[in-house]
# Entry
Amino acid sequence: DQQVKQNSPSLSVQEGRISILNCDYTNSMFDYFLWYKKYPAEGPTFLISISSIKDKNEDGRFTVFLNKSAKHLSLHIVPSQPGDSAVYFCAARGRYNQGGKLIFGQGTELSVKP
Amino acid sequence: NAGVTQTPKFRVLKTGQSMTLLCAQDMNHEYMYWYRQDPGMGLRLIHYSVGEGTTAKGEVPDGYNVSRLKKQNFLLGLESAAPSQTSVYFCASTPGRVDYGYTFGSGTRLTVV
# Structure
């Protein structure tokens, strides 16, 4: 039972264009969502987060959008750069979650071509 | 500032052997976690700890044990390794505020033959 799903295993984008990574969730009790970026042979690094009381959060080239009615969030990267090529994981936390546990999606591998 | 350090980085075990993976953090974080990453499965939580002396089960705890005797260290043990435990293991820590995110280690690649 995958509560957080990333249905696109991979995405290829041209440098300078927009990258849109999608994530769907099933649990309406999630109250916080995060995106992580992972390069090969490294651990994931925190990228951006959003609370369920907001519908948008922006940090430089990265923007996360949350659509609670559709149980859907997306990460927009504008403009995309070759250094953005990595695996991106979305993650969610339950509202009454003890211990700050996060549930991760399967990941989407982004390739930004020069 | 080392952050989260995992040792070893690579290991090959024979079925039935035991081993301990060590995670050390120097950020004085309260919460620590062990995840495993498998192709197409994302990151799945094995065990976690909300403070020194505490541990709790995650999503996939079977076949693993953990200990947190000191705040800065979180150990993951495999008592009798099985091929199904071939995976990449990540340790993570956080001060307890979810908006800070986790800090992950660089991972341990374990192969059980």
About this structure: Chain A touches chain B through 27 residues (CB under 8 Å). The radius of gyration of chain A is 14 Å. The CA atoms of residues 2 and 44 of chain A lie 20 Å apart. Chain A has a mean pLDDT of 94.
